[in-house]
């Protein structure tokens, strides 16, 4: 395959943002980069695939999350590149290429919110609106040295967003600083927060062992700073009991929902997908109902365990198992350990905040704080310890 040129963060088919009236509000003057899965009135939504772009008319209204943020004063500066249908974790689009990582030149940004992260990291946007299904806000946040929030699943509307898996998809935010993230979170989230006091931390050894030794070592000082404020339990998450296979469950339910939502479009238009995405789409078409039942059984087990674990506690884990890979590197071996770290939040719908934690050989790595449903604000409070 011919190597594609390195694109900037923004999609080239959106040259001008339709003017909007000034609204005032807490985000007045904030430059907003919008992942090209979100509808923006008057603009096409490309979803990372040329056939999708060609077969869908421009949006007639804003996605709910876009409307909320712009209604609070944010100004859209562009729509940003994404993986095809958000069906990947690495930000390497076979049609459009992959934006470079401003925080680690020569390396990928990661996540299907790759363009959004690149825009915020390079400074052309202050606030990024992405989506997180299996880690696509958290991973680029960690690899680009940003703050990245995957909110509680129930607290943000997904209306007007091209879905990957509605059971796991959630709009999320990327920023360079915690103050702006706190302000934007207050605008975007609905429903009351969980006010259960945070009484402790859990940093399970078995989850930390999914990360490379250099990552664990680099993040240890940040963990110690948190542990100086709250007791920290590092015993293995699953102990001697068999761990629920949440990676299998994530793959099955994601494929099942993708095909039921987009299968007819695939059959009708026969879009060309890149190699990794194409294989996942092929497998999605073959998912069976017994597989779904088995997957949901695993998801229930994880939800039960997390409800007990996160009652007044925060899970603290590496955001990703390794720093951002170099452009063109084989990312296949990273997929399983990434989902081992990100998948728990995804299948349970938990809020997860990636905080800039450290660097390995000059490459950013993030620390992720995971809370009970509704504990988004508590995670932001806890992150203040690491500023």
Automatic annotation (TrEMBL):
Domain of life: Bacteria
Domain Amidase: 23-178, 292-380
Pfam entry (one): Amidase
UniProt xrefs under PANTHER family: AMIDASE 1 (PTHR46310:SF7)
Name of the protein this chain belongs to: Amidase family protein
Organism this protein belongs to: Catellatospora aurea
């Amino acid at each position: 395959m011919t190597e594609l040129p390195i694109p900037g963060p923004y999609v080239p088919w959106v040259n001008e943002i339709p003017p909007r009236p000034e609204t005032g509000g807490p985000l007045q003057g904030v430059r907003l980069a919008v992942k090209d899965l979100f509808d923006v009135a008057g603009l096409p939504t490309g979803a990372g695939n040329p056939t999708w772009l060609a077969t869908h008319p421009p949006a007639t209204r804003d996605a709910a999350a876009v409307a909320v943020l712009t209604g609070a004063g944010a100004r859209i500066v562009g729509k940003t590149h994404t993986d095809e249908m958000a069906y990947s974790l690495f930000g390497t689009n076979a049609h459009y290429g992959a934006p470079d990582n401003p925080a680690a030149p020569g390396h990928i940004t990661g996540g299907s919110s790759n363009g959004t992260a690149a825009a915020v990291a390079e400074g052309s946007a202050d606030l990024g609106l992405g989506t997180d299904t299996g880690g696509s806000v958290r991973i680029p946040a960690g690899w680009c040295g940003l703050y990245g929030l995957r909110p509680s699943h129930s607290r943000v509307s997904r209306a007007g967003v091209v879905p990957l898996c509605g059971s796991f998809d959630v709009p999320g935010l990327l920023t360079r600083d915690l103050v702006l993230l706190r302000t934007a979170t207050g605008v975007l989230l609905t429903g009351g927060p969980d006010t259960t006091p945070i009484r402790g931390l859990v940093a399970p050894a078995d989850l930390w062992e999914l990360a490379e030794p250099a990552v664990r070592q680099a993040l240890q000082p940040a963990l110690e700073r948190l542990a100086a404020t709250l007791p920290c339990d590092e015993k293995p998450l699953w102990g001697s009991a068999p761990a629920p296979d949440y990676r299998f469950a994530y793959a099955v339910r994601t494929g099942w929902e993708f095909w039921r939502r987009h299968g007819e479009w695939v059959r009708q238009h026969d879009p060309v997908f890149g190699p990794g995405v194409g294989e996942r789409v092929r497998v999605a078409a073959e998912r069976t109902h017994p597989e779904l039942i088995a997957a949901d059984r695993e998801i229930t087990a994880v939800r039960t365990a997390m409800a007990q674990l996160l009652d007044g506690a925060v899970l603290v884990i590496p955001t990703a198992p390794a720093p951002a890979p170099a452009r063109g590197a084989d990312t296949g071996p990273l997929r399983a350990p990434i989902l081992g770290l990100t998948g728990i939040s995804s299948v349970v719908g938990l809020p997860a905040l990636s905080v800039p934690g450290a660097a390995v050989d000059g490459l950013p790595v993030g620390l992720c704080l995971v809370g009970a449903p509704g504990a988004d604000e508590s995670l932001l409070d806890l992150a203040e310890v690491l500023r």
